[in-house]
């Protein structure tokens, strides 16, 4: 693949752990290579953390908890302001690094791996500054919000910087300390963020990063009794397991587990705009997005027109080098992810589905590229309709009116988000209220600023919420002190 003028080597302290404010490369650790999924070239490596590393990280986080949680909110907020400034100043490096790790086009990466995490961080600091940390209720009881303690944060690879900041910011604002295990595919940006935390003066032990594979290092982190909260984003399978371990100990877990989100179009909506917008939202980050609207549900009589519009929009994507600013779709994040996506599409074809696109893009000679797919002619219980595929695959289904559209939209174990389309203000509101999902977007609205709207799932999409005041709450315990009589 031809490289572009944009490429600039980013210096990351790779192959090192960040524990107790120290960068270390313990001897005899396995090194895991990190690949650029567009080139299949190695761009770095990270350490596979062992039980010793896990124990050291929890010990550091536990030791730092007392001093950190007894600092003033303003002290912590000022450090987080400095971290946001550092994210701003180093945003371009971070965007390039994340684009190289995930394969996300650089324009998208600038927006969602740099600018968005910065605004999330600033918004959480604002929420923390105005939160009611302590007050007397109408019974005269003093309500005290306290940090829950040591947080185990486990994050996936698809929006890695955002997913880390969405946990780190409220945890640190609350006065918690953190042990972070980033995804094996995208760990370098986590080490980059740790370097920023270190540079701005976040004290030793408050943020610790242990890299490694999920089933080994991740499992050790989960099984070791070192944390007071586990905050996980990733697959339903792993989330369910982590929730079980935490549940057995009666330790709080917040789980953000993906979805199979519907985009429901009523017959009075502008079909062209609704379909084109859905394609765009579905194919962000090559469809590797937990809240991607992957099930487009249109009036049955409009199915063929919707397919034509969607297929045309899909073929307009420019696949290629993520660091080339003209690229609009990069590769999938790994060969496993590519094979999983192609497997779903091949099986659907065997069952008689019509698939526009959805074939490997082999012209680059390397990289896990797949042309985006529009799937029609499938049963409502087909696996491409029911399973989270996590790739550029949009399925179109037909509905027979409002009630049928609601039925299909809710006919999923998931409930992370939904998009609804109608020209009628009353009907679109009614639709939004009937859908069981943590976020419902009306007529193509994007994310309002500041990014404080709660994000999280109904049903199997998870437990708890991220962002804004709901996100901060997850990191707090509530104490009621009866009888202090402040007011008497
Ligand atoms: P995953 O296996 O659930 O991984 C998420 C995080 O958990 C990663 O850091 C992973 O480490 C870690 N992990 C895996 N097994 C673990 C264990 N036993 N104990 C502790 N930590 C563990 O998800 P994935 O492999 O990244 O992607 C698989 C599928 O999950 C995707 O195809 C997609 O359907 C879904 N997914 C959903 C989201 C979302 O935003 N909700 C994000 C990504 C993926 P490793 O990276 O080292 O495995
Ligand atoms: Mg995994």
Structural descriptors:
six-stranded mixed sheet, binds magnesium ion, disordered N terminus, 40% helix, binds NADP nicotinamide-adenine-dinucleotide phosphate, alpha/beta
Low-confidence stretches: 1-8
The set of bound ligands, ions and cofactors reads: NADP nicotinamide-adenine-dinucleotide phosphate, magnesium ion
The helix content is 40-55%
Oligomer: single chain
**CA-atom Rg in angstroms:** 23 Å
Number of strands: 20
Mean pLDDT: 96
Which percent range describes the beta-strand content?
15-25%
The description of the largest β-sheet is: 7 strands, mixed
Layout of helices and strands, plus pairs?
Layout: E1 17-19, E2 22-24, E3 31-36, E4 41-47, H1 51-69, H2 73-89, H3 91-102, H4 106-130, E5 134-136, E6 142-147, E7 150-154, H5 160-174, E8 177-181, H6 188-200, E9 207-209, H7 214-223, E10 229-233, H8 236-249, E11 252-256, E12 261-265, H9 271-283, E13 293-299, H10 303-315, H11 335-350, E14 354-357, E15 373-376, H12 383-386, E16 393-399, H13 402-410, E17 417-421, H14 425-434, E18 439-442, E19 462-463, H15 468-473, E20 476-481
Parallel strand pairs: 7-8, 7-10, 8-9, 10-11, 12-13, 12-17, 13-16, 15-16, 17-18
Antiparallel strand pairs: 1-2, 3-4, 5-6, 6-20, 11-19, 14-15
